């Protein structure tokens, strides 16, 4: 029955690839129309085109790509819509598509088989969770187990298996992902995959497909790695792949070892001696692509051990397994990494997409320094001191650059005390090196100076790095160096940012006398004309970031000059509306500049609003600022819309309640931003601005609050709204309640129901094993707690006693559940304990309820014992409020 719906679309698929734009457009329109009129027929016709052995290859390939795109999309909600459309198809149609795709894996034309292998997992990930297409994995395994199967068929089958495993592994809920494959299926997949990986496999294309499939299947191999015999065999086969004659197989095999270092760190000790030999040999002798993967193995081990060390310190728990691989191997591995630093790609400084072995080694050295701290310094400094001044032959720039890179790489990790003397001795040398004849050396020198300012300058320990004596020379060198080539100027902006951040002082800083000159030079750099639009955009962004850091760190004696930036930025913003916008590129250039100028205005406004006496400098220009921001918002570009929204939020704090005069013109943009679900960052920044406006305007915001509350509530209920926004909306309820005070009473019933639903959703995910969900759940809980706290404080004691007693008992029980969850973080603990104090303060009648909950005392004690900032103060405050609440009830 399904066959009757098949239409020959060969000519349309040819037309879709025509060099003639008109022919191409017409073919695309006809294909789109066919899909809309007969979705089932469209799929069946695509399958026929993909499977047709008599069809041209380009037709088959495009048919497969379109078929894949009818099932998959980058956008989550679009992907869900496509999946639902597939699910609704007639079962016979779905069976026919699946059968054709499996058959195409055996096509005489390997390219068609590869294409089918990419489509199969897109259907599998829809059907397997629904307990459909249960014979997929057995069918693929049967093909692999059939003797005499052609190499290209085995390759395509392995690719399909690997892609299916990859899709399952990318599912957000790990527990669900694991349930899709039984242990027997995992065992059978690994058996089939390993059979294609062994050194006895003559076809390297099969070995590559098998090794890639293993990489994707490793996530499900925990039981197999727990079994020593199976683990040994897997490691043996992978290691054999690292010496295959095919470079692609060697790279893929090392990628597997990198993933094992991350996922199976605990079982590595048995293999580390051989892995050390293998990876060092590869780094020293193999082709660059393979060597970079071997370096990545050590970088991954660093990442793992850094995480473990941090977790052990945070939890004061030594039970987490730490093998100290990096500490032990450091004396041997660091010299190998240093040797790779001179293998620079001459384009690596300019082109961000270049990833040379030198950059890989330097990145790994940074991680080693973070992992072992002071131990790395004596291993690296002899290399630095021996090469940083080499200048015998022209190619010695490589040694100077490598030595500078090595020095910069170890500045994060070792203690400031350990580095202080070295840095103080080396800074003058580095300042002189900004005049090195090699642009590569100058670039890395500027980066290293920036790293010194980031990690050593501003510390309370060690010998002071910046003094009144050396600062004039430092500033002079930086302002000369910022005139250098754009990629070097970009590094200088980074150095200035951290010089400023480390010089922050409330009254006057050493940097104050140079504020005007530095900011002026940064503005000149931001508007430096150049032919390379990408580099211009990059340098402009770095320049504005440095200006923002100068403003943020400015001391009181510079605030007059900070205020003078407002008319300057307004003038620059005004000029952007006169730019000739004739192409997509020129539109993007205008949008980027407007967004950056809005960002700078926002930072300036925030800095001047920090001190009441300086707000007048903002208020003086408020009408002009708002006029410009409204013009920017009217352009409807997502990037600048977000920055402009944030700038409006900053302006509300400076202007205060008089901001209400702008609301009639501004409100439509708030509504537009809240409805912009597609560009979720815009929606998120708008939620923040709603909070700012309502908190500042207080009861003056009432005319707009019904609409705003409805929009916020709709966004919480809407599946198309990015989940990251929803905790922010809950926090916005807190600010709205604090602003409206007793007037928030009219929204209580609706918000109480929303909070109840949010609590239920949060508790369903308690003790989840999925890290992303745990992070989101903590954000959700923080939003819930923030909302209730704001409502309590906003309503006042009388209204709270009248309306919130029952909700408060629910909230206390919710906090109890949160405190039992091992996934809660310190921030959430502080918020939760703080809310207990808020409830006790606002609702003294709940004293008996508090005394009936023994876990509350444990929660306060846990908060008190935590060393994070503010924890002890919060615990003491909450304990006092609860004690007062209990005693007032007892005596009443």
List the helices and strands and how they pair.
Blueprint: H1 10-15, H2 21-37, H3 39-51, H4 57-69, H5 76-87, H6 91-104, H7 110-127, H8 136-145, H9 151-169, H10 174-179, H11 183-195, H12 204-217, H13 222-226, H14 228-241, H15 247-263, H16 272-285, H17 288-315, H18 325-340, H19 357-372, H20 377-387, H21 397-409, H22 416-433, H23 439-455, H24 471-481, H25 486-501, H26 515-526, H27 533-552, H28 559-576, H29 584-609, H30 615-619, H31 622-633, H32 638-655, H33 663-675, H34 680-697, H35 702-717, H36 725-740, H37 748-764, H38 771-803, H39 805-820, H40 826-842, H41 847-851, H42 855-865, H43 871-891
Helix pairs in contact: 2-3, 3-4, 3-6, 4-7, 6-7, 7-9, 8-9, 8-11, 9-12, 11-12, 12-15, 14-15, 15-17, 16-17, 16-18, 17-19, 18-19, 19-21, 20-21, 21-23, 22-23, 23-25, 25-27, 26-27, 27-29, 28-29, 29-32, 31-32, 32-34, 33-34, 33-35, 34-36, 35-36, 36-38, 37-38, 37-39, 38-39, 38-40, 39-40, 40-42, ...
């Amino acid at each position: 029955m399904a066959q009757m719906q098949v239409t020959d679309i060969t000519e349309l698929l040819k037309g879709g690839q025509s060099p003639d734009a008109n022919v191409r457009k017409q073919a695309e329109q006809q294909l789109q129309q066919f899909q809309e009129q007969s979705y089932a027929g469209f799929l069946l016709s695509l399958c026929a085109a993909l499977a047709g052995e008599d069809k041209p290859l380009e037709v088959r390939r495009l048919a497969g790509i379109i078929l894949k795109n009818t099932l998959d999309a980058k956008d989550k909600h679009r992907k869900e819509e496509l999946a639902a459309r597939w699910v609704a198809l007639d079962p016979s149609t779905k069976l026919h598509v699946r059968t054709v795709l499996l058959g195409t894996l055996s096509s005489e034309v390997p390219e068609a088989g590869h294409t089918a292998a990419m489509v199969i997992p897109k259907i599998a990930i829809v059907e397997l969770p629904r307990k459909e297409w249960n014979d997929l994995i057995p069918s693929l395994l049967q093909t692999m187990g059939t003797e005499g199967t052609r190499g290209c068929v085995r390759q395509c089958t392995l690719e399909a298996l690997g892609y299916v495993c990859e899709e399952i592994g990318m599912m957000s809920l790990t527990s669900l992902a694991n349930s899709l494959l039984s242990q027997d299926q995992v065992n059978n997949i690994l058996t089939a995959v390993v059979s294609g990986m062994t050194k006895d496999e003559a076809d390297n294309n099969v070995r590559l497909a098998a090794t890639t499939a293993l990489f994707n299947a490793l996530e499900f191999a925990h039981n197999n790695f727990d079994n020593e015999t199976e683990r040994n065999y897997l490691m043996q086969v992978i290691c054999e792949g690292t010496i295959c004659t095919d470079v692609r197989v060697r790279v893929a095999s090392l990628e597997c070892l990198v993933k094992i270092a991350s996922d199976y760190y605990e079982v590595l000790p048995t293999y580390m001696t051989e892995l050390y030999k293998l990876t060092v040999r590869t780094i020293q002798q193999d082709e660059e692509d393979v060597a970079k993967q071997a370096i990545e193995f050590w970088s991954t081990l660093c990442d793992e051990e850094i995480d473990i060390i941090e977790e052990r310190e945070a939890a004061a728990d030594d039970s987490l397994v730490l093998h100290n691989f990096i500490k032990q191997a450091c004396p041997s591995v660091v010299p190998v990494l240093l040797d790779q630093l001179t293998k620079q790609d001459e384009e690596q400084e300019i082109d961000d997409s270049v990833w040379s072995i030198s950059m890989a080694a330097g990145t790994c050295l940074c991680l080693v320094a973070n992992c072992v701290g002071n131990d790395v310094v004596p291993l690296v400094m002899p290399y630095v001191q021996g090469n940083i001044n080499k200048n015998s032959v022209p190619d010695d720039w490589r040694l100077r650059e490598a030595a500078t890179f090595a020095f910069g790489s170890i500045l994060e990790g070792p203690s400031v005390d350990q580095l202080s003397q070295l840095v103080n001795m080396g800074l003058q040398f580095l300042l002189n090196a900004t005049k090195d004849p090699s642009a590569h050396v100058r670039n890395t020198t500027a980066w290293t100076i920036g790293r010194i300012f980031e990690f050593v300058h501003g510390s309370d320990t060690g010998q002071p790095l910046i003094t009144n004596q050396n600062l004039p020379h430092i500033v002079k060198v930086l302002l000369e160096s910022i005139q250098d080539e754009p990629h070097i100027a970009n590094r200088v902006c980074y150095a200035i940012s951290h010089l400023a951040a480390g010089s922050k002082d409330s009254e006057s800083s050493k940097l104050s006398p140079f504020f005007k000159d530095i900011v002026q030079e940064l503005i000149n750099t931001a508007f430096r004309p150049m032919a390379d639009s990408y580099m211009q955009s990059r340098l402009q962004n770095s320049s504005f970031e440095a200006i923002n850091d100068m403003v943020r760190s400015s001391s009181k004696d510079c605030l007059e000059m900070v205020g003078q930036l407002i008319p300057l930025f307004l003038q620059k913003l005004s000029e952007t509306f006169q730019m000739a916008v004739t192409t997509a590129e020129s539109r993007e250039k205008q949008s980027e500049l407007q967004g950056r100028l809005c960002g700078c205005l926002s930072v300036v406004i925030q800095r001047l609003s920090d001190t009441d006496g300086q707000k007048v400098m903002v208020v003086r220009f408020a009408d002009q600022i708002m006029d410009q921001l409204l013009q920017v918002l009217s352009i409807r570009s997502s990037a600048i819309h977000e920055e402009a929204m944030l700038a409006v939020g900053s302006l509300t704090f400076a202007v205060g309640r008089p901001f209400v005069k702008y609301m009639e013109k501004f409100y439509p943009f708030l509504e537009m931003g809240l409805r912009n679900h597609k560009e979720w960052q815009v929606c998120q920044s708008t939620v923040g601005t709603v909070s700012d406006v309502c908190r500042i305007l207080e009861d003056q915001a009432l005319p707009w609050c019904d609409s705003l509350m409805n929009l916020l509530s709709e966004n919480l209920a809407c599946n198309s709204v990015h989940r990251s926004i929803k905790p922010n909306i809950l926090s916005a309820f807190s600010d709205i309640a604090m602003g409206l005070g007793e007037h928030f009473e009219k929204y209580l019933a609706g918000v109480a129901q929303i909070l109840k639903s949010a609590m239920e959703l949060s508790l369903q995910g308690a003790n989840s094993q999925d890290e992303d969900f745990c992070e989101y759940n903590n954000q959700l809980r923080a939003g819930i707690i923030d909302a209730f706290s704001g409502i309590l404080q906003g309503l006042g004691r009388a209204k709270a006693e009248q309306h919130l007693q029952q909700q408060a008992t629910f909230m206390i029980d919710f906090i109890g559940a949160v405190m039992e969850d091992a996934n809660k973080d310190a921030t959430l603990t502080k918020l939760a304990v703080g809310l207990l104090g808020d409830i006790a303060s606002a609702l003294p009648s709940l004293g008996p309820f508090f005394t009936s909950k023994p876990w509350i005392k444990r929660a306060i004690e846990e908060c008190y014992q935590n060393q994070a900032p503010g924890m002890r103060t919060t615990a003491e405050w909450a304990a006092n409020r609860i004690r007062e609440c209990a005693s007032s009830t007892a005596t009443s």
